[in-house]
């Protein structure tokens, strides 16, 4: 497949698979254990159908929205994905430029191969910083302060990873960060010694450094080290949603970590509506996991999401074609989403309603006679 023949986001994955070393491709592509949730993140979207409205003047369509007080061009944003320089030499810097050009938000991973300062130096743009809480709280405070100083606008706290899920491809490949790369946000900080002989660098890194004692009280602690709003990424239940609001979360990202943590959790699109209901409109809810089409974006918004984040499409397009690839992915999703809105009879995001979709838990409106 030639780059100029690409007509949809999914096609970048095949190019990335061809280009990347097996170890790197598998790291990005694989999920946990049986990878049931990995497949379900996609499959669940295919069971949600549209109920389009017709004969509405859709000559003008407005995709703009506001996220955490920032006006962006569309409700499609970039999720944090680790170690992007494994995909392309420019890594996170290319992704940051592409997001900025598209007028949308990029989330930088804690475990990025570019630092918050380097990403900030690519030029203006709205950026969030994804945080893993390490055992050494001084290191955490230092990194958060650096992100804030570099102009990042929110902290996206990953809450589903006290330890890393079992990703068997990484174990088989004995996944390790290529020797020419470093985790730039922690460069020069004393993180103790990592067990280099383990099956997977990522798993041993997490086991050694992530704080497994992380709990609700720590949200309050993070609020003492930063004035930035805190989004909780990895919420899947209405119960946790209500506790998150009490704990002072500014927003929620319904996420199952790209199906890389606990296998057999529901697809995020299946968990979304109950989480949205539990917020009672008090804080915005976003979604990541399985978004590959503009139709997926529309379905998420119809079920109550304020926006979506994309992960794998970014690293695969980055691997295939650098910054241009990421720009094209954002543009294709935008175009497909706009088309879906037009064909559903929606001229703005607020016109996308629950009535525009039909899910398996909706009662049929009529029963066909046999």
From TrEMBL:
Spell out the Pfam families in the cross-references: FMN_dh
The UniProt entry, under PROSITE patterns, shows:
FMN_HYDROXY_ACID_DH_1, FMN_HYDROXY_ACID_DH_2
The UniProt entry, under InterPro entries, shows: Aldolase_TIM, Alpha-hydoxy_acid_DH_FMN, FMN-dep_DH, FMN_HAD, FMN_hydac_DH_AS
- In the UniProt record, which is one GO cellular component term? peroxisome
What positions does UniProt annotate as the active site of this protein? Answer: 257 (proton acceptor)
Requisite cofactors: FMN
Where on this chain does FMN bind?
80-82, 109, 130, 158, 233, 255, 288-292, 311-312
Write out the residues that bind glyoxylate: 132, 167, 257, 260
Q: Which reaction equation describes what this protein catalyses?
A: glycolate + O2 = glyoxylate + H2O2
Q: What is this protein called?
A: (S)-2-hydroxy-acid oxidase
- Annotated FMN hydroxy acid dehydrogenase domain ranges read 1-362
Localization in the cell: Peroxisome
Q: Which domain of life is it from?
A: Eukaryota
Which protein family is it in?
A: Belongs to the FMN-dependent alpha-hydroxy acid dehydrogenase family.
Catalytic class of the enzyme: oxidoreductase
Where are the annotated coiled coils located? none
Main localization (coarse):
other
Q: Which GO terms describe its biological process?
A: defense response to bacterium; hydrogen peroxide biosynthetic process; oxidative photosynthetic carbon pathway
One GO molecular function term? Answer: FMN binding
Q: In which pathway does it act?
A: Photosynthesis; photorespiration; glycine from 2-phosphoglycolate: step 2/3
Keywords linked to the UniProt accession: Flavoprotein, FMN, Glycolate pathway, Oxidoreductase, Peroxisome, Photorespiration
> What Enzyme Commission number(s) apply to this enzyme?
1.1.3.15
């Amino acid at each position: 497949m030639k780059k100029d023949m690409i007509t949809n986001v999914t096609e970048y994955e095949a190019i990335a698979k061809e280009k990347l070393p097996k170890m790197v491709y598998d790291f990005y592509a694989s999920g946990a254990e049986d990878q049931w949730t990995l497949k379900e993140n996609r499959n669940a979207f295919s069971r949600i159908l549209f109920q389009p409205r017709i004969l509405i003047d859709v000559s003008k369509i407005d995709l703009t929205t506001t996220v955490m007080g920032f006006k962006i061009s569309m409700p499609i944003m970039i999720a944090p994905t680790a170690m992007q320089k494994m995909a392309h030499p420019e890594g996170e810097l290319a992704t940051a430029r592409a997001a900025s050009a598209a007028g949308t938000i990029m989330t930088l991973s804690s475990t990025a191969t570019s630092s918050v300062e380097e990403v900030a130096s690519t030029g203006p743009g709205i950026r969030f910083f994804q945080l893993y809480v390490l055992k050494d709280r001084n290191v955490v405070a230092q990194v958060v302060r650096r992100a804030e100083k570099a102009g990042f606008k929110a902290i996206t706290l990953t809450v589903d990873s006290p330890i890393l899920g079992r990703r068997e491809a990484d174990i088989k490949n004995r996944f390790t960060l290529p020797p020419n790369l470093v985790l730039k946000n922690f460069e020069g900080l004393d993180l103790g010694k990592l067990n280099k002989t383990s099956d997977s660098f990522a798993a041993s890194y997490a086991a050694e450094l992530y704080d497994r004692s992380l709990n609700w009280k720590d949200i309050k602690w993070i609020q003492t080290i930063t004035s930035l709003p805190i989004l909780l990424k990895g919420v899947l239940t209405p119960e946790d949603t209500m506790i998150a609001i009490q704990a002072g979360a500014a927003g929620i990202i319904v996420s199952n970590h790209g199906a890389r943590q606990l296998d057999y959790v529901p697809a995020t699109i299946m968990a979304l509506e109950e989480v949205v209901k539990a917020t009672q409109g008090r804080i915005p809810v976003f979604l990541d996991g399985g978004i590959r089409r503009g139709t997926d974006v529309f379905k998420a918004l119809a079920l109550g999401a304020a926006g979506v984040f994309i992960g794998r499409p970014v690293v695969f397009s980055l691997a295939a074609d650098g910054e241009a690839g990421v720009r094209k992915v954002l543009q294709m999703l935008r175009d497909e989403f706009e088309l879906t809105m037009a064909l559903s009879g929606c001229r703005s995001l607020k016109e996308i309603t629950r009535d525009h979709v039909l899910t398996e838990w909706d009662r049929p409106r009529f029963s066909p006679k046999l």
